[in-house]
Every structure is written in C-alpha cells, then in structure tokens.
Amino acid sequence: MRECALDALARREHSRFELQRKLVTKGYDSSSVEKELNRLNQEGLLSDSRFAEAYVHYRSRRGFGPNRVCGELRERGVDETIIECTLEALDLDWSSILDRTWRKKFGRPPKDFQEKAKHHRFLEYRGFRRENIARYLSQLQENAPIES
C-alpha cells in the first residue's frame, strides 16, 4: 500500500481525501489506509496545504477564478481554513486572470446586451465573482472605440 501511495504522490500532489479514496478503491482496508496516511502526513510527504497551493496555481494559470477553484478544493476534501489561508497567502491578481481569460475567449468588447450576457455567463462559469465581472465588462464597454 505504501508503494501505491508514494507512486501517486510522485506523480502529483494529492489531498488526503483524494489519496484515501484512491487507496480504498484499490481494495486496501480503510483503517490501514488511515494509519498510512497519518504516517505520510507526519513524514511531510502528504500535505493538504501544499496540495491546495499547487492546485490554486495550476487552475488560476488555466483561467479559472476563485469561486471555481475554492469549490473544486472543497470537492477534494480540503478544509475551508486551508483554502482561505492559501488564497490569502498566494495573493493572486484575480482581475488580471479574469482579463487574460476574457481576452483568450472573446478578444473584443460585447456589441449588445445579449453578447454581454454571454460573456458574463462564461466568466461566471469559470468561477469569477459577479461584481468583478460586471465591473470589468462595464470598463470594456466604456473604453471600446465607437464604431461609425
């Protein structure tokens, strides 16, 4: 079992919950899995904080916002306080990530309300906060060149 856990951790960071689920799925006894996870945690080989940091970096570079990233971390069993501390410690510039994500997908300001709503839905699906999206799209329309 230890080799299986170490193989998984060698490929990428895992949350405790993810690794536990993998090992139990492979048929290992849940009480022995729990003991092994405690041992890996004590040895510093398994860390939800380290996993959360790596995950936030990875997903933000992929153009996902804080709401989506937090939700995904919760699904992976990361404690809420670890999520909050990680986001606070990393202090990412979510507005520039929002801008980069929008530019990659659309590249030009929406021309009407329907198109603006489409842009808004996309960015909200990507996990950006509604008030940030609304502010960003309003600024885009204010700075857009007037077409004649």
Quick structural summary:
By secondary structure, this protein is an all-alpha fold. 72% of the residues lie in helices and 0% in strands. The chain folds into three domains: 2-46, Orthogonal Bundle (Arc Repressor Mutant, subunit A); 47-92, Arc Repressor Mutant, subunit A, CATH 1.10.10; 93-148.
Q: How helix-rich are the residues, as a percent range?
A: over 70%
> Would you count the extended β strands for me?
0
Secondary structure tally, helices:
9
Secondary structure class reads mainly alpha
What composes the largest sheet? none
Number of domains in the coordinates? 3
Which regions are unreliable across 5 or more consecutive residues at pLDDT < 50?
A: none
Break the fold down into its secondary structure elements and pairings.
Elements: H1 2-11, H2 16-25, H3 30-42, H4 48-61, H5 66-75, H6 80-90, H7 94-105, H8 113-125, H9 130-143
Helix pairs in contact: 2-3, 4-5, 4-6, 8-9
Explain the overall architecture.
The protein is mostly helical. It has three domains: 2-46, Arc Repressor Mutant, subunit A, CATH 1.10.10; 47-92, Arc Repressor Mutant, subunit A (Orthogonal Bundle); 93-148. It has helices at 2-11, 16-25, 30-42, 48-61, 66-75, 80-90, 94-105, 113-125, 130-143. Helix 2 (16-25) runs antiparallel to helix 3 (30-42), helix 4 (48-61) crosses helix 6 (80-90) and helix 8 (113-125) runs antiparallel to helix 9. The longest helix has 14 residues, at 48-61. The radius of gyration is 20 Å and the shape is elongated.
Quickly list its features.
148 residues; Arc Repressor Mutant, subunit A; 3 domains; 9 helices
